[in-house]
Write a structure and sequence with these properties.
Largest sheet: 2 strands, antiparallel
Radius of gyration: 25 Å
Number of helices: 6
Oligomer: single chain
Strand order of the largest sheet: 1-2
Distance between the termini: 34 Å
Structural class: mainly alpha
Number of strands: 4
Length: about 200
């Protein structure tokens, strides 16, 4: 007989790890915006205006000049998706978790591209190191937390297919005047009608 106790990894259940992943993403995104604001807002685009000779250079120039606006836009979307993620844990909706799972790698890839293109030689070496350290450590932490999110989304998806079965005890007539207890299952339709 299989136990219905939740499994623990690093002392954390899948649901708790999923909640912590959403909280971590919101806090880390806020810290990232605070730190990067000074370095990305100060992009000097005046010296780059005449240098665009190819399409690649034009794209690089656009990303460099608009890096703060791009990061602010992507971070705002990330915070909104993280809030949806937290609501999805509460409401047991795997769709919101899947959106989070798809968005986080895209967000981090975009941040790597921006980091590479805006990592100027004029920055102090320690600042460049701190920017890369922050980005890499955030990516590793997202990889750690995403395991919990995938596990919890899979659990919700499996349980949703079973139709919210609720067991209860009831009397069963055997025709001989006896009423032995028997475990029975009733499908809970109240969730499906409320949506």
């Amino acid at each position: 007989m299989r136990s219905h106790r939740p499994q623990h990894w690093c002392g954390i259940t899948a649901k708790t790890g999923t909640v912590l992943s959403g909280v971590f993403t919101i806090v880390a995104t806020d810290m990232y915006l605070t730190f990067e604001q000074k370095h990305l807002k100060g992009s000097d685009c005046a010296e780059l205006k005449g240098r665009a000779k190819s399409v690649n250079m034009l794209i690089n120039q656009f990303i460099t000049c608009w890096s703060w606006n791009i990061v602010l836009f992507l971070s705002s979307i990330t915070i909104i998706i993280s809030c949806l993620h937290l609501y999805s844990v509460y409401a047991r909706m795997y769709t919101g978790l899947m959106i989070y799972i798809a968005w986080i790698p895209s967000y981090e890839i975009a941040n790597i591209v921006i980091q590479v293109l805006t990592n100027k030689e004029s920055l102090i070496g320690e600042v460049r190191f701190m920017r890369w350290f922050g980005l890499v450590s955030r990516i590793f932490m997202h990889c750690f937390w995403i395991f919990f999110v995938v596990t919890y989304a899979h659990t919700i998806y499996k349980n949703e297919g079973q139709g919210n079965i609720v067991p209860y005890n009831r009397y069963i007539s055997t025709g001989r005047g006896e009423f032995p207890w028997q475990k029975s299952k009733i499908v809970n339709f109240s969730r499906h009608y409320s949506e």
